[in-house]
Amino acid sequence: MYFLGSGGETVQGAVYSALKSAMAWRYLLVTATLLSGCKQVLVEASSWWSLAMNPIQIPEVYIIGAQPLCSQLAGLSQGQKKLCQLYRDHMQYIGEGAKTGIKECQHQFRHRRWNCSTVDNTSVFGRVMQIGSRETAFTYGISAAGVVHAISRACREGELATCGCSRAARPKDLPRDWLWGGCGDNVEYGYRFAKEFVDAREREKIYQKGTYDSARTFMNLHNNEAGRRVN
Length: 231
Hints:
Layout: E1 2-11, E2 27-31, H1 50-53, H2 66-72, H3 78-86, H4 91-108, H5 134-156, H6 187-198, H7 200-204, H8 212-228
Antiparallel strand pairs: 1-2
Helix pairs in contact: 2-3, 4-5, 5-6, 5-8
């Protein structure tokens, strides 16, 4: 299995311009030994990533008959459907974040045998996500990062009812000749919401400790967190 995070061999990534300008996307891959004799875990046939393939153009449509619409969105777990009902205006931006993550994944792997290509609008990446590989680890991380970025930006632009601009002070690394408007991306909110939504599916799973399934769930949660922290 592969984990994104500290403690492993550093792999320099290209500039992660799609999610945060002037920030290098650097990630570490730590190899964990696969549990011997365990069957390969099968991931769900659908994923919340499908929101990128079936974008929600008009969030206002969720105002009427919200519950049926949320329940009909492909790829959402029960917990994610509940969050959809509570935060209907967020769904469009979750889809945008997933789409940004997919595009960045395709850019980073464009010269490799597996280039992050999508196979359908439901499972998105298909059977390749069944393997606990570094490609899978990167995909989980980059998708989570995309959601943080999209939600944070939507807060700043006043698109979401439950958040606004960041209250953070002027960034220390901002050039002196640049004007600071005092309204930055609300990364704190974006991080919290992305953690709640993206991790919901994994946290709903209950596996016996020490099994492959349990280890895979932990791997997914770890890589989601690594992705959120790049913002």
